[in-house]
Amino acid sequence: MRANRTALVLGAGVIGLSCAYFLRRAGWEVTVIDRGEPGHGCSWGTAGLLCPAHSQPLPGPGVLAKALRWMLREDSPFHIRFRLDPTLPGWLLGFARACTLARSRESFEAIRSVSSLSLQLFEEVRGRGDADFYFERRGGYWAFVTEAGVAHAREEAEDLRRNGFPVDFLGGDAAREREPALSAAVRAAIFLHGDAHGSSLGFAESLAATLKRHGVRVETGVRALRLLREGTRIRGAEVRSGDGAREERGADETVLALGAHSPLRARTAGVRLPIQPAKGYSATVRTFEGVPSIPVTVAERKVIITPLQNVVRFAGTLELAGYDPSLNKRRYRAVIAGGQAGLAARIPLEDEVAWAGIRPLTPSSVPLIGRPPGRDGLLVAAGHGMLGFTQSLGTGRLIQQLADGDEPSVDMAPFAP
Ligand SMILES: Cc1cc2nc3c(=O)[nH]c(=O)nc-3n(C[C@H](O)[C@H](O)[C@H](O)COP(=O)(O)OP(=O)(O)OC[C@H]3O[C@@H](n4cnc5c(N)ncnc54)[C@H](O)[C@@H]3O)c2cc1C
After folding, report:
1. From the CA of 359, how far away is ligand 1's center (Å)?
2. What pTM was computed for the model?
3. Which end of the chain, C or N, has fewer beta carbons within 10 A?
4. What residue ranges do the domains of the chain occupy?
5. Tens digit of pLDDT for each residue in 196-240?
6. Cα(70)–Cα(239) distance, integer angstroms
7. What is the pLDDT of residues 84-119, one digit of tens each?
8. How far away, in angstroms, is 199 Cα from ligand 1 center?
């Protein structure tokens, strides 16, 4: 234990809480602040997948052409609302540059390295009793509902095997035999043996409770206003608490884990983070007859169906629409329709909970984990896009290793902010 060193973690989503957890375990005195409750940002309504096999980044060969076609459809899984945002053109250029085969392979490796580390840590942290939440490790399906999808599924299964993921390729009937919940429209499926799933909100709440038990101050209703900078050193943050009082919070290390809002606060210390807010939707319904036993991703529709104890969640879509939290009904309904395409039973929609969450997305889909150049005392842990829950504990461990000057568990070069 190294005593008396202080860390201020900005943001109590799955990422900030994971950073706080490992810092505390290493002996840091930790304070976490959030403007809301732990896990009530983007970490609230996720599909709950913990899935290193999903490490494929968004950009890749052929993606630009596909994205342009999707842009013309209101109900497509990807949409950009063009607006006056000076950071958007640069981000899109970065995205276009990340679309080469070589870059997408590098990004895959980077994301996979943190995701795999994370999944090991989920087992370890649960084993210690530090995160008690709904979690299952029984695999998952990718279901394909088009003829073109079947050919793609075969290649994808081969690719996954080459990358060390144990998978089964199943024809439609074989898939339905194993998972009777799948619809007649499913023509092929990949079964991923190593996938896990669980409640991201349950994880956040449980970790926050553990932190409090171990002396971490978890402060809610406190907004980070700006980073405090002295020359090249960041010495904490100015915050505003619920009663409107402004105060300075000093710390030896400040961890910026504000999810999609991270670039707004980074800017106050002259740090530019290439992160775009990327909205997604989920619908949560009570469990019903004909629910799949494990998660199913309807591949062509980019919709995930996840059984989460007594509810079922349908999640998907990616919309670059700025920080507007509103729910586009048409695109939300497309998420439900995409889920329905993979399921034999009808989804009961009488009392569903509709949710929109804003993911923090980098151009390459690789998160930013590390120290921005020329800024001592600041560590960034943001930009985890579609896979923040999966990468959470891995990110937390890496941030602690960087803070302590320990050898990081994975090559950190791809994550440099
Ligand atoms: C529909 C959908 C489905 C998803 N499914 C999955 C999945 O199956 N698996 C997976 O791995 N990932 C999934 N994700 C991605 C995952 O949700 C995100 O990557 C992850 O939640 C990011 O965590 P975070 O802690 O960085 O951000 P957040 O959870 O958003 O946390 C940031 C926190 O910062 C706080 N904050 C912001 N600004 C301020 C401020 N100025 N002052 C104080 N506090 C502030 C917010 O209140 C928030 O609590 C999904 C996302 C969506 C939208």
Report:
1. 6
2. 0.97
3. N
4. 6-139+194-415
5. 999 999 999 999 999 999 999 999 999 999 999 999 999 999 999
6. 41
7. 888 999 999 999 999 999 999 999 999 999 999 999
8. 13
